[in-house]
TrEMBL record, chain A:
Keywords: Signal. This is Peptide/nickel transport system substrate-binding protein. Residues 109-501 form the Solute-binding protein family domain. Pfam families: SBP_bac_5 (PF00496). Residues 1-22 form the signal peptide. One of its GO terms (cellular component) is periplasmic space. One of its GO terms (biological process) is peptide transport. The keyword Signal applies. It comes from the Bacteria. CDD domains: PBP2_clavulanate_OppA2. GO terms for molecular function: peptide transmembrane transporter activity. Residues 21-43 are annotated as: Disordered.
Automatic annotation (TrEMBL), chain B:
Keywords: Cell membrane, Membrane, Transmembrane, Transmembrane helix, Transport. The keyword Transmembrane helix applies. It comes from Actinacidiphila rubida. It is found in: Cell membrane. The chain crosses the membrane at residues 46-64, 122-148, 160-178, 184-206, 252-277, 301-320. Residues 121-320 form the ABC transmembrane type-1 domain. It comes from the Bacteria. This is Peptide/nickel transport system permease protein.
């Protein structure tokens, strides 16, 4: 009875979808034909998906075709650090919490997924308790328990010998995290003691220090349940057990994957997924220009990498014909220049201020590709991170640099004629090399000679800019870098780049070697604060404290120009996942 | 590649083979081999044209800095007001060509392309000639020694050549350029990059030269004049450098002129891979490389350095062919 109804509904939906696609192919010939099928939501217009859902649809069916110019680090939810895989894996791996599939700022809201509600924190923010829904099942019909979630966290955070890709925040924050050797080496069936599973639906985390952002860690793909019996470490990616609405029909390492409906998934246990498409196909290692051409032709639904079109395509799609299908979205990352105060003459704050005032940020912006590639930045936190507060501490007219103020600062620092310094960038990052070239030109205008030193990106932090002794020895005073948060809050963004503890002998990201006790204390106080509003405000204040030290010059809030074909439905940007399209919502009329 | 020798009356008078005791001449003189070659070369209009272009290019490279200052060209000055910020491509057609910027400006920064072509010429030339000189010196010496002494010396040097020829040059170039980022050998910055490029390109190309010289030496060492000087008690080095080397000048010179364009292209290829000259210094290869990303949007940016490299390579090739024909008429 039920199934017959479903079949009828499916048939009807298919018919409708066919009709809709016929309609759309008609409207394609008359160029300005509007989509009539999108009853609610926004119709196609430039940047429409930044704030609304474009081509909103409730029709089930269709195949979403994704292409990627590279390969993922892994599709295993416990072995990935890629932003797009975090977004994509939610189709087959549900997590404790996740980000709300919604347009605009709403997309930064954390909502329960497997859990019934957000984490219940102890007053000291050191113990976090979650309860998961009942009736959850894997694609083989076996029930999902909190033990599997615990196991998923253990394998992903504590076993770098098998799964080396993902972040290790659980290891860093869980009590006893540094001692536990992971489930492959430590055969004790109880696992790590600081994650308790008193019953099959409850999971309790005991942290070593207060951490009020824990709900954000609970959105990581690492909290997806993995049945221990099915896990074989690095080989698990070939037979991932699905907890979401889709399961793997096929997976070819480094080539492609095919997701089909998981009949064991039930809408009743999942309030956030609509699971409209019947099938999701993804292909890897497709040439970036080919992907763009496929998008323009409507053969591909989305470029899964989410980093935007190539420069070739960019020049094409900003024209009137394609512009309405583009979204220029914040990538959640800021490019900035770190000034190292341990390198002369930057031990003098006025010399640092001279740099702050001298740089023409508009010139930097033009060099990397204009407003399409990013907005001029005055803060470290980009606008799409919780806690962003607008301020401009070293304002210059139109952000074009202020030679007068820069020269005054130079005089105050005792170098009225300027000086010679080194400027580093990553040689295989064209945008960063362009920034370096533009900054070098800006500084020349006030008499500062900057010699560009470029290093390969793979060794930039481990061998060069991230090694204080190397930096001091080679007088690398100015270092270009870019930073995006692992989770979209001020703490997730700032902790690794401004906290004194982030200065490491090698591989650190605190390039400006900032170790200000007020900033360290403010970070520690804010992350222990369970009052979300107060915490959010604190991030903006800390950001300002950092910029006031004149050791960082925020340059650009990076943006990506994304293209959505007419056949893509329910398209919206998710700010939580680096400004790419939300893959939980995305459907296709094809 | 030589122009066909037409025996018009005027030219007949210039035929070096013709023994002339013409009415117009006051004295009868024998001509040296050099003079004969020069006369043959002069008749080859294409080669002369190539030679003229080469001389102009060398002058351009040598005088790059003075030319820039006389004409007020600054290869590194930004003119971002000429750039359309939404595409970073120069405003207007033809890559932003105007009276002020005769070849247009580059995307992203708006730097004058003419100035950058002139500035890039000395980098490309110095790298190409330096690398050629290095391979020619090593190659000639090793080829002479291997060819003259023969035996185990020849075997050893020949196997070393084989090893060099089999060496994955590009990988080595990338790794050495990447590892020598900062100062090394008392050099830093641009000087270091140029020296590294010269070394990488020159040091791995010598076996080609070596093989040619070795082959020629093998046949020369059996000739009577070598026998004679040996029987008169001349030692190895004297025979090598005073007897054999002058007879090898022709192939060495010809091969050098053919090697220079190859090396210009190689510098371009290395810049293309990002291991060449670091910014903001202009080099032809570097310009070609950065033009790739915006090829469809701003094709003119690729055409300018492309044409410059094309003209240079063509000119050197024509000159080389002409020299070969002039110095060694049997090779035709």
């Amino acid at each position: 009875m039920n199934s017959r109804k479903a079949t009828a509904a499916l048939a009807l939906a298919t018919a409708l979808a066919l009709g809709a696609s016929a309609c759309s192919s008609d409207s394609k010939s008359s160029d300005n034909g509007k989509k009539s099928s999108s009853s609610q939501g926004t119709s196609a217009a430039k940047d429409a998906a930044l704030t609304g859902i474009v081509n909103a649809s409730d029709q089930k069916g269709g195949t979403v075709v994704m292409e990627n110019s590279d390969v993922p680090d892994s599709l295993d939810p416990g072995n990935t650090y890629y932003g797009w895989v975090q977004n994509f894996s939610r189709l087959y791996a549900r997590t404790l919490l996740t980000f709300k599939p919604a347009a605009g700022k709403d997309g930064l809201t954390v909502v329960p997924d497997l859990a019934t509600g957000l984490g219940k924190a102890s007053p000291d923010a050191k113990t976090w308790t979650y309860t998961i829904r009942s009736g959850l099942k894997y694609d083989d019909g076996t029930p999902i328990t909190t033990k599997d979630i615990k196991y998923g966290i253990e394998r992903s955070n504590f076993a770098p010998e098998a799964l080396s890709n993902g972040p290790t925040y659980f290891k860093a924050y869980l009590a006893g995290g540094d001692a536990y050797k992971g489930p492959y080496k430590d055969k004790n069936p109880n696992g790590i003691a600081s994650i308790e599973t008193p019953n099959d639906t409850t999971i309790v985390f005991h942290l070593a220090k207060p951490f009020a952002d824990f709900d954000y860690l609970a959105t990581f793909s690492q909290t997806a349940p993995v049945p221990a019996a099915k896990d074989d470490g690095a080989g698990y990616v070939k037979h991932i057990v699905s907890s979401g609405p889709y399961k793997f029909a096929s997976y070819q390492d480094g080539a492609s994957a095919d997701l089909v409906r998981n009949p064991q998934w039930s809408q009743a246990t999942d309030p956030i997924r609509k699971a409209l498409p019947n099938e999701i196909k993804i292909k890897f290692k497709v040439n970036a220009n080919t992907i763009d051409n496929n998008l323009l032709a409507g053969n591909t639904t989305v470029d899964s990498g989410g980093t935007g079109v190539t420069p070739q395509t960019q020049a094409k799609v900003i024209g009137p014909k394609y512009a309405k299908n583009t979204d220029d979205s914040y990538a959640g990352a800021t490019s900035y220049l770190a000034i190292n105060p341990n390198v002369a003459p930057y031990n003098n704050a006025d010399c640092r201020k001279a740099i702050e005032y001298a740089i023409d940020k508009v010139s930097v912006q033009t060099a990397i590709g204009g407003p399409v590639k990013g907005d001029v930045a005055t803060t470290l936190l980009p606008p799409t991170v919780n806690g962003y507060t607008k301020f401009d501490e070293f304002a210059t007219p139109d952000n074009k640099g202020d030679a007068t103020k820069a020269k005054a600062s130079l005089a105050a620092c005792g170098k009225p004629g300027g000086f010679t310094t080194n400027l580093t960038a990553r040689s295989d990052r064209p945008a960063e090399m362009a920034e370096a070239t533009a900054i070098q030109n800006s500084l020349k205008q006030v008499g500062i000679t900057a010699n560009i030193k470029s290093f390969p990106a793979g060794k930039y932090f481990s061998n060069f800019a991230g090694v204080p002794s190397y930096v001091h020895q080679h007088q690398l005073g100015l270092m270009l870098t870019a930073w995006g948060a692992d989770w979209p809050t001020g703490y997730g963004f700032l902790d690794q780049i401004v906290d004194g503890s982030a200065i490491k002998p090698s591989g650190g990201n605190n390039l400006q070697e900032l170790n200000d006790k007020n900033i360290n204390a403010a970070l520690a106080a804010a992350i222990a604060n369970t009052d979300a509003a107060a915490r959010t405000k604190a991030w903006g204040d800390i950001d300002k404290m950092v910029v006031d030290t004149a050791t960082v010059v925020p340059l650009i809030y990076r943006k990506n120009l994304l293209y959505r074909p007419d056949s893509a439905t329910n398209v919206t940007i998710t700010q939580a996942y680096l400004g790419m399209y939300d893959y939980l919502l995305l459907g296709s009329s094809k | 590649m030589t122009a066909p020798i037409e025996t018009t009356q005027a030219q007949a008078a210039a035929q070096p083979e013709a023994i002339l005791a013409g009415a117009g001449r006051k004295t009868i003189e024998g001509r040296s081999l050099g003079q004969i070659a020069w006369m043959r070369f002069k008749r080859d209009k294409v080669a002369v044209a190539g030679g003229v272009v080469v001389i102009l290019l060398v002058l351009l490279a040598v005088l790059a800095k003075p030319i820039e200052s006389v004409f007020g060209l600054d290869p590194n000055a930004f003119h971002q007001d000429l750039i359309d910020p939404s595409t970073t491509v120069p405003k207007g057609g033809w890559g932003g060509m105007s009276m002020h910027h005769l070849l247009g400006v580059d995307p992203q920064y708006g730097r004058d392309l003419l100035a950058r072509i002139i500035e890039g010429s000395w980098v490309s030339m110095i790298v190409a000639t330096g690398a050629t000189l290095l391979s020619v010196i090593i190659g000639s010496v090793m080829g002479l020694i291997a060819g003259y002494y023969g035996g185990w010396v020849d075997s050893l040097i020949s196997r070393v050549m084989d090893i060099f020829l089999a060496f994955p040059l590009l990988l080595f170039a990338i790794s050495i350029s990447a590892s020598l980022q900062d100062g090394a050998f008392g050099l830093a910055g641009l000087k270091l990059r140029i020296c590294v490029l010269i070394f990488v390109i020159g040091f791995f190309n010598w076996p080609y030269m070596g093989r040619i010289v070795r082959g020629q030496t093998l046949s020369l060492r059996e000739r009577e004049f070598v026998e004679a000087s040996r029987s008169l008690g001349a030692r190895g080095p004297f025979i090598l450098f005073r007897e054999l080397l002058p007879n090898l000048v022709a192939p060495i010179l010809v091969y050098s002129t053919l090697l220079i364009p190859t090396n210009i292209l190689f510098e371009a290829a290395l810049s293309f891979l990002g291991v060449g000259i670091s910014p903001p210094q202009a080099s032809w290869g570097g310009m070609l490389n950065s033009a790739i990303d915006l090829f469809y949007a701003d094709p003119e940016y690729m055409v300018v350095p492309g044409v410059a490299i094309f003209i240079t390579v063509l000119a050197f090739n024509l000159l080389g062919d002409g020299l070969r024909d002039a110095l060694d008429p049997r090779s035709k």
